[in-house]
Specification:
single chain, 232 residues, alpha/beta, 6-stranded parallel β-sheet, 9 helices
Amino acid sequence: MTTPPPAWMILFDIDGTLLDTGGLGCEAFRRGLARATGVADELAYVSFAGNTDRNVLDQVMEVRGVHFCEVAIRQIFAYVTEELQALLARGPAREIAGAGDLVTILAEAGAVLGLVTGNIRACAYLKLGSIRLDGYFGFGGFGDEHAQRERIARTALDAAQSAGHSAQAGRICLIGDTPFDVAAGRALGIPVLGVASGRYSESDLLAAGAERVAADFQDKNRWLEWLEQIMP
């Protein structure tokens, strides 16, 4: 088996990439928002795939014609976190096939692993914890920091530097499951590998600019070969 070099820095999306909550994240958001505002909202006008929690709130404010101050936003996110924790206690997320094994191989080889996710930080680690992967990711960019995924990705790189991690140019990549992930990576000038595990197909992700795409992570050697090709 190919051994990944420790100089790699690999940034992972979460939902649809490493795991699938079966809609629990959306349900937690609906419940938390209702608790905070007193208004039940199915959020039918929101597409959660590739979205960010901060942007979902922006969409809610636009549709309702209201403005949530920063204190209100933090309260909403706190309720969403509580709701997600309760939902995951009843049924954990489903790991995308092979994700845990690949993450373990990369971490044990010394690769630096981070997150670029639309989830707020607390929810990101709750989801990862439900499949026992939370301990592998020490930094990241999150959806409570910015609404735009490109800015979230830039924040992840800043967080890596603050944590004492560095990677040479050409040794950083992003792995995600939506064209929004691909666009964020391309905006930063880093290659993206796609996981066609849900709403977006292999052709969708390739058309968006992904270097390679697979349905899951079961073929670990293929993933390691791809990583070697894009980060020689």
